[in-house]
């Protein structure tokens, strides 16, 4: 009898799996997606989402995951926490707790280790409430909840991490315009129905940072790229007029200001003072050293009466041309008549 029950149970699961595959392979939805048996065991009106396998192979999607994993591991290096797979390592709230505590510099009142599902969800609830308190005032749309994170929903986890990275101005460069195809399986009147939707994970860095005010460089890049070379040529002439005094010459704005050295030296030349070498790295090697240099140059600019640059130091280090142009144009506007 046990063997018969076992066979019947296997057949039921197999039938459900076939039902799921048939729904996915329906003429209206030609894409083929592997449905696991547990993904088809749905209650009436329940739904489940899966990322289309083709989207998982998208280079920008892979890059997004890698950048976020590297960032988490960098933040938590002192905790000796190593994240390898987002769904498996973040679902129980333990890593998310440590990450938020480190980023926000505050301690959460939660149990350190929880093995039970109830305990894990309680921890997640506390962590996510703290996240929401930080993000909601800045207009972030909350696209995750306790059940989706604990259910290892990668889309929800990515939305959460992107929001945290942007809110805390993480020193990383997220790939822009990352979208994935998501298969949504619903059970209606006993039958599985599938739909395909496009889920946008990232837009542009500026939009995600909340900087919706546009300036001349946004317009230049979007509507007058032909004039970009003229602007670059003018800025190169301006910076070389001063850097040539130190026998230095710039030919590529995108790369030669990325380590911050030329920015620091340029500020000294424009304001006619010597910058002590112990204040910055003359030959920076690491990302952090380059960010230090650019940040220091920004401080010198503010000391000189300029507003705090709209660009982030990390953006300049990451070779973001628009950010570099903004910084140099501010200098040009104030110091163009300095000999």
Automatic annotation (TrEMBL):
Keywords: Actin-binding, Cell adhesion, Cytoplasm, Cytoskeleton, Repeat. GO terms for cellular component: actin cytoskeleton; focal adhesion; lamellipodium; Z disc. It is found in: Cytoplasm, Cytoskeleton; Cytoplasm, Myofibril, Sarcomere, Z line. Residues 62-169, 229-336 form the Calponin-homology (CH) domain. GO terms for molecular function: actin binding. GO terms for biological process: actin cytoskeleton organization; establishment or maintenance of cell polarity regulating cell shape; lamellipodium assembly; substrate adhesion-dependent cell spreading. InterPro entries: CH_dom (IPR001715), CH_dom_sf (IPR036872), Parvin (IPR028433). It comes from the Eukaryota. Pfam families: CH. Belongs to the parvin family. PANTHER family: BETA-PARVIN, PARVIN. This is Parvin beta. It comes from Falco tinnunculus (Common kestrel).
């Amino acid at each position: 009898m046990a063997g018969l029950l076992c066979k019947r149970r296997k057949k039921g699961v197999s039938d459900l799996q076939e039902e799921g595959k048939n729904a996915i392979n329906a003429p209206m939805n030609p894409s083929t997606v592997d449905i696991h048996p547990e993904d088809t065991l749905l209650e009436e009106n329940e739904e489940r989402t899966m990322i289309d396998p083709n989207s998982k192979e998208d280079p920008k999607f892979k890059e997004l995951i890698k950048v976020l994993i590297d960032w988490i591991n960098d933040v938590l290096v002192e905790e000796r926490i190593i994240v390898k797979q987002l769904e498996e390592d973040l679902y129980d709230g333990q890593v998310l707790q440590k990450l938020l505590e480190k980023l926000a510099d505050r301690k959460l009142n939660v149990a350190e280790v929880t093995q039970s599902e109830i305990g894990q969800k309680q921890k997640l609830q506390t962590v996510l409430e703290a996240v929401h308190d930080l993000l909601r005032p800045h207009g972030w749309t909350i696209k995750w909840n306790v059940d989706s994170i604990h259910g290892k929903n990668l889309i929800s986890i990515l939305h959460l991490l992107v929001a945290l990275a942007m809110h805390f101005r993480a020193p990383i460069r997220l790939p822009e315009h990352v979208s994935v195809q998501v298969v949504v399986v619903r059970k209606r009147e006993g039958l599985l129905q599938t739909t395909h939707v496009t889920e946008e994970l990232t837009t542009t860095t500026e939009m995600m940072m909340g900087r919706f005010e546009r300036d001349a460089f946004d317009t230049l890049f979007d509507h007058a790229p032909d004039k970009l070379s003229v602007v670059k040529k003018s800025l190169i002439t301006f910076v070389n007029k001063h850097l040539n005094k130190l026998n230095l010459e710039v030919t590529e704005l995108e790369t030669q200001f990325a380590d911050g050295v030329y920015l620091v030296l340029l500020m000294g030349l424009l304001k006619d003072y010597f910058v002590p070498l112990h204040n910055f790295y003359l030959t920076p090697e690491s990302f952090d050293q380059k960010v230090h240099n650019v940040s220091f140059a920004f401080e010198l600019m503010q000391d000189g009466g300029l507003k705090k640059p709209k660009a982030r130091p990390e953006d300049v280090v990451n070779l973001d041309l628009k950010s570099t142009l903004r910084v140099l144009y501010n200098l040009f506007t104030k110091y163009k008549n300095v000999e």
